[in-house]
Fold:
Amino acid sequence: MTAEMPPKFGFVAIVGRANAGKSTLVNRLVGEKVAIVSPRPQTTRQRIQGIVNRDDAQMVLVDTPGIHKPENALGKQMMNEVRDALEGVDVLCLIVDARDVSPERLGPEDRFVLNYVKRFSGTAFLLLNKVDGLHKEKLLPIIEFYGRQHGFAEIIPISALKGAGIEDLLRTLVKYLPEGEPQFPADQYTDQPQRFLAAEIIREKAILITRQEVPHSIAVLVDSFAEGAKLTRIRATIYVEREGQKGIIIGKGAASLKRIGTDSRLELESLLGTKVFLDLHVKVQPHWRENRAMVSQLDWRQQLGAMSDAEEELDEEQA
Structure:
């Protein structure tokens, strides 16, 4: 931290519609991959924290699921994640796809998201994403229109994918953060355990490789995670809702499953710094998105809590 100015520390939540670029932005700001990305809507299902370490500040970014009207247990949990993400944050950033908005009126989904943001009582930014390729004469009316909809503290055009406007965004966010000492080590860039990151990477590869409606029906649970100095052994199960979806995941001659495994293993080896032995299985769990117990298992915070409770019970038995 600089000697001239006191350090700053704070939380920034990123919200918006599905596919607005939230996860891409968080990864760009952090400089590491902390959230999986795909062209499929509702890829992010839980709030994910990425940590930005600068000389003048430490900033915790909270990536959130796309704001939507929930239709099942999974959707309800996703919206609960959004609600929980807004508690105690210093700045809320609404990100919108600038190529997909009208400078004259808001569509029902954009209106739903904006009304959600209006309930936040703190500082709010509007981030107009994907502006690369947009002419200034098209962008200015959008800025003016959104400025009339809500009292945003800042409206900043960016390209999360290309990097345009990102440094300006970082500097501006730091100005709005409160003074405070860093709460995380300088080399930490996320609060997620590696076990959860492994499940998310596998899910990302499965989403990218499959088509049709399978992406929404995919869940991944890591059954075992044994990390060694040179080799990490991971056993994971990919869940789908129907037998036909299982066939798509596996593919002809197991080609799709092999590709999912290979792509996942290569990224995990880069992440973990060890060789990875990845054992993947596919199971059918009918209507799991409606199953609250199944949905709760996907929340790594609940998984950690369950593991801690089990360890405490074991300690009590041994005592």
Summary: DSSP finds ten helices and nine strands in the chain.
